[in-house]
Predict the structure.
Amino acid sequence: MNQNPLLSVVDLHKTLIGNHILQGINLTVAQAEIHALMGGNGAGKSTLIKCLSGYWSIDKGSIKVNGAALQLGAKQIAFVQQDLGLIQSLSVAENISLGVGYQTGSFGNIRWREMNAAAADLLAGLGHSGIDPRAEIGRLNLVQRTAVAIARATQGLKVGAKLLVLDEPTAALPSTEIGALFETLERLRATGIGMIYVSHHPSEVFRLCDRISVLREGKLIATKNTKETSEAQIVELMLGRTLQKTVKTPGQKGQQTAAPVLSLTGVCGQKIKDITLTIGKGEVVGLTGLQGSGCTELAEIIFGAQSCEAGKMVLDGQPVVFAHPAEAVAAGVGMVTEDRHGNGSFAEASLGENITATDLRRFFRNGWMTGTAEAAEVDGLVADFKVQPPHGQRRFSSFSGGNQQKAILAKWMRLNPRLLICDQPDIGVDIGSKNVIYAALRDAAAKGAAVIVISNQHDDLEAICDRVLVMRAGRIVAELSGADATEHKISLATIGTQVQVKELT
Amino acid sequence: MCCSQPLSPISSQRWIPDQFATLANLHTTVSSQYVLAILAIGVLLPPIAGEFDVSLAMVFTTTMLIVAKLVADFGWSLPGGAAVGLLVATLLGCTTGIIVTLTRASSLIVSLGMMILLRGASEALTEGRSIIVGGNAGEVLCGLSNDVAYGALPFVYLCAIALIVWYVTEMTPLGRKWYAVGGSAESARLLGLPSDRLKIGAFAAGGLLAGLAALLQLSASSAATSSIGAGFLLSAIASVFLGAIAFRIGTFNVLGPLTAIFALAVSITGIGMLGAPNWIDGVFYGSALIVSVAAVQYFWGRGTT
Amino acid sequence: MTSQTTLSTQLGGATRQKKPDWMTPAAPYGMVFLLIAELIFFTVMAPETFATRASFNVVVSNSAILGLIVMALLVSLIAGEIDASLPAVLTVASLSAAALMSHLGWPLVPAVMASILVASCIGLCNGLLVVKFRVPSLITTLGTFTILTAAITGLASGRVIEAGLPKETLKLLSKPKPLGLPLTLYYLMIVAVIVWYVTEHTPLGRQWKAIGSSAPAARMAGIRSDRLKLQAFAAGGFLAGIAGTVQLFKARLGSPNVGPDLLFPGLTTAFLSAAAFRLGTYNVRGAILSIAVIQFGITGLILICAPYWMDQIFTGSALILSLAIVRVMRRSSQ
């Protein structure tokens, strides 16, 4: 297997801003191998990928692809970048062509017709014939965008690349779409393509990959054959310690008290219809659904970020209509948004300023902002939520994804909200941080808050929720509580009728 | 100073009412705007790649002064002076681009700095005088823009330049890569596109076009002063924005500024016909800018912003 | 990028390209050293003229109006928008106060208050266009700048308003020199302290900073961006109105020529403020320091008999250099 590796990375070192990020990485990928790369946030995965793509130059060591040294612009490797790396304002076909170059005519002009046709073929081959190659990326949904990113990578393979690197390609995919992606990847593997697959999810990795390499703190800790290892062992390697799964203790389940915190009756919005639900004090309710099912819209309507077109909303016995998130915050509602970089945080401000932004008045004493009181509160929260490194005055963007998310949660928890909505709190978050976050949510519920968690990770929902609501096409289609709220049943309910049709035929 | 007379290229022309609808009149409107139009196309290029260059109006002035000085004071040949002028213009654009990519600072601020610097430089070149290109070179210069077929030549230049820029931005990989970098510099860099070099290229191309505009202005007036470009700055930037928003919401392309410039020029000519005082131009120009942008945003912009 | 900095603490700083240790804490004060170096340079080059009371007075009297307009510009910049029309608003305010006194015979106080109100309203209108119609602020305010300068040119026809102004009162408001410093400098100091207090020590200022750093994030944190932006624009107009008033006191006549020329120097100084004290953030102390650096520089250049165009070359280079400094410092202080 290692006789003629497709990719060999030998003793790779990379230092950025004085930090030794990669410390002697050795990695090989063979032909027709899917090689998983795992590690917590800050382990060095992204930097390694960026070295492979030529984004960063390397300080020491070598990268060889098919025996030849890595060259910039030689298109030896095809990529599906983290967050897909598509350009919103350009068309589908243009995004695909940017990877390998445009086809040009004799005057240096782009041959648009051929380019669009080639893109359409490529997408149809991936089972997405519905995507118009002339459409702007900004108009596509996340599933379609992922398809375009993968189409771009496969085109890279067609023009000679033998290695494909996928950096968290499933981040935006619901579980039903993941199967189709894996089929595509397995077909590519059968043609001799080697792959590096970066993921946070052990379940995906064990389903797909041949070997697993684990990175921690810039070092390659171990490379294991998938068949000879277990999820527990990999997670241990990633964390460098034994995993303590933080789940709710049995008996908490279904601990719904009589007093409802939030009740919606017939709530309608742009994409959601006739939502009726009640959430009680101390309850953690999961909300899940396929892409476009309306979970985020529902959350934003409750939070006042989108307008409620019809229906009634009652919070703690008071009928409310929030026209702006400010009103929701004043009423004791908090929301961790899905798009952490877009509307969840102030990247250039300090971590502390992010935490205190929701309520500054409490530090405003005698006509003065008291810096010491603010710093003390931030330090306390940073310690409570185990933010690493524990420096509240550092720039927010310098923290890893998991630590950013912990800080965002801290920002809401310090207000002791009656209702806390968390939209995909686990995206781009390593396992250690995820446990802290879920423990904090259970803790909030224990103190009497109502918590809504939106997530596509059905095993996590099973672990932390008292009740799970499943949405489809803007409606709530299933409610699973107690012993019914299992990963399997949630997944089935999410897919809904599609599966039953398949079973019949 | 530019601020007190931001609209000199438009307000400098006056007509009497019965001439308004004639072909000759239209042609005059066009030819009074062609320098501005070429400059505006130059100002358009950096925004395609996601950056701004407000120094181009001063690049325009500096180039004109350098060419005039070389030809008039140092006795260079016209082609030699023009070549050096275009080279300097391109290099100035290039320099702004290099500073922007090196400092990762806002291009608006960097080019503001460049603009102030170049204002000083152009004062230094003229020391308050105007440089007149006379003699043989002056005649050749005039011949480049004047009175063959009713002075259609500048119009031909403008069309040629607009066509070339349209072709490059819409039909060639280079142009599409500029749009890609403008859309997301980070994604473009991850794709292996040399973002920084593409941006610098767009700045340089902007500088080159400002240089071309300077040559044509020189050929029309045969004289160069340090104050001439300042009035173009706001008009050129405004046309780019107006055009971007009127044509393809949120993206920049060649047709936009051209349409905007001529629509405004024609309207302002019309207002002049009605006997309104000179300064009404400014009010009209500013209002047209705000109202059109506001209207587009209000009726079509919902959801796209 | 996120992974790199997290590791820095875990690894305890494995060093290879690290900047010298003194650089990081010194970074925010780079411009102070620049000012000191500049003062020493000019004192050595022009010992007879530069280090004198007279040259100091020139600097101070040039700084006051510019400083006031910079304070106005700062507020909108901190809130993430730019109000380029403010220098023209200054002229409108000073002219309208003069016109009210001269043509309508109003007393000083109501005339000044009315003109400041007009200035605030113009700011508010800009804000409404930006907030309600979502017009990018640079376009809106370039538009209003053009309209206002054109209207000033047209209505005032280049003439100053001098007749009928209460000369004696105006003299009293600008002539005295407590502690030997011109009164206009005290106006600037008072305004600067207020703007500093509001932007850095009240929730309002912190919220302006929040919407300036990300409006969508501010919205989802329960901060009313629209209302705050309106307030910032109105505050900018208000401060430009005060600047216009001080200009009227200083010149003792209403002049159509002063304001618009301040656009580029004002913007330059406001942008420069992000290169001192709070790197990457527009701030009042930085703005005051920038004014000092630029005005001492320009005065010094005149005194060492540099050609008159050197001041623009100096200002332009200072702006570009400061950006480079911020870049280098940010790299080392990450």
Remarks:
- The longest helix of chain A spans residues 142-158.
- The CA atoms of residues 93 and 119 of chain A lie 5 Å apart.
